[in-house]
């Protein structure tokens, strides 16, 4: 089961407390099914518990976990919110709701919940770990590093914490720092797939394509058909000029996860390199529809529209890319658009 805080209940039944005894019996049965990974059955028992007592905060929290494990994060948030409303200071429910908000990409809501949790668990590595992840997702890298430093100080055996901090260093293009964290992560857990994936990204950035390919292959051995790993290897193949392999990985990635903007960006690059500008623009625009902040997307859109003789659109995107000093965008914008 993922990082959710589950509430158990130890009860002493008495004949004078029949409604609570029935409620608690359903609750305990639900917990057993939840721990067994039988989430629909767990929800069924939790529903029975709620029917006996609709003010029982703990059952809403645990039912929210079952919904979260099913990927029904919106329904989980409703249950966690109900639990928080029924039990003041319910830190576990705040933490669980923060994780659900993360899955929904509601990062500000997640951070607000984590602030509430930190009042009750000021020395929790899990809380700092999750805060660091959420802060990184909204681009607050300095604060993310600070939170991850705290998480590592509290638990220096967590390989994932080093991977996450290394990822932020990669975003900042502090590649030496990223590699130091990767080395430590792999010492702690040589089978940490995300560490091998990040090692591949860093090596790609450095132009060390052999190391990058070995790293992505290792990551995919550990987690077969992981869509982000496939897409990253597909991008590497583009850099290596192996277009058939790139297309195969990127298409497989999109099939598994059709909501990754980077996969459509990479497919757009594939079509640009293949000379099919219409398909390139279609995929790049799909990437922008999903997430217009996708790295280097404005640059590739600008180049694709320019090659397709659509100067006005090209200049709009090249201007945005030039503001971020992407590749040769400033020079290209000055030559073509001014």
Describe what you observe in this structure:
The chain has 338 residues and is mainly α. Helix content is 76%, strand content 0%. It contains 19 helices and no strands. The chain has helices at 18-35, 39-52, 57-69, 73-86, 91-103, 107-120, 125-137, 141-154, 159-171, 175-188, 193-206, 209-222, 227-240, 243-256, 261-274, 277-290, 297-307, 311-323, 329-337. The termini are far apart. Residues 8-16 have low confidence and may be disordered.
Could you provide a short overview of the structure?
The chain has 338 residues and is an all-alpha fold. The protein is 76% helix and 0% strand.
Shape: elongated
Q: Determine the N-to-C terminus distance.
A: 56 Å
Question: Share of helix among residues?
Answer: over 70%
Query: Secondary-structure element sequence?
Result: HHHHHHHHHHHHHHHHHHH
Name the average pLDDT: 93
Provide a count of the helices: 19
């Amino acid at each position: 089961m993922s990082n959710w805080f589950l509430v158990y209940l130890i009860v002493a039944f008495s004949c004078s407390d029949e409604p609570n005894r029935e409620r608690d019996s359903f609750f305990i049965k639900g917990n057993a099914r939840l721990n067994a990974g039988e989430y629909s059955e767990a929800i069924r028992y939790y529903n029975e518990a709620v029917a006996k007592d609709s003010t029982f905060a703990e059952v809403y929290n645990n039912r929210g976990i079952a919904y979260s494990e099913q990927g029904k994060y919106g329904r989980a948030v409703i249950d966690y919110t109900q639990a928080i409303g029924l039990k003041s200071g319910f830190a576990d429910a705040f933490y669980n709701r923060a994780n659900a908000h993360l899955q929904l990409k509601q990062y500000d809501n997640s951070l607000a919940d984590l602030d509430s949790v930190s009042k009750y668990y000021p020395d929790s590595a899990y809380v700092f770990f999750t805060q660091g992840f959420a802060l990184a997702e909204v681009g607050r890298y300095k604060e993310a590093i600070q939170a991850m430093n705290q998480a590592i100080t509290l638990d220096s055996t967590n390989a994932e914490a080093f991977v996450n901090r290394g990822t932020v260093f990669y975003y900042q293009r502090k590649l030496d720092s990223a590699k130091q964290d990767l080395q430590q992560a792999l010492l702690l857990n040589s089978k940490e797939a995300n560490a091998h994936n990040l090692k591949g990204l860093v090596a790609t950035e450095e132009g060390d394509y052999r190391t990058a390919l070995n790293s992505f292959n290792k990551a995919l051995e550990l987690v077969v058909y992981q869509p982000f790993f496939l897409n990253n290897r597909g991008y590497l193949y583009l850099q290596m000029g192996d277009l058939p392999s790139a297309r195969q990985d990127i298409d497989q990635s999109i099939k598994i996860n059709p909501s990754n903007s980077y996969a459509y960006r990479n497919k757009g690059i594939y079509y640009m390199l293949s000379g099919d500008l219409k398909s390139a623009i279609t995929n790049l625009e799909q990437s922008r529809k999903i997430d217009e902040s996708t790295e280097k997307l404005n640059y590739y859109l600008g180049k694709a529209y320019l090659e397709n003789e659509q100067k006005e659109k090209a200049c709009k995107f090249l201007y945005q890319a030039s503001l971020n000093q992407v590749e040769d965008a400033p020079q290209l914008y000055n030559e073509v658009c001014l």
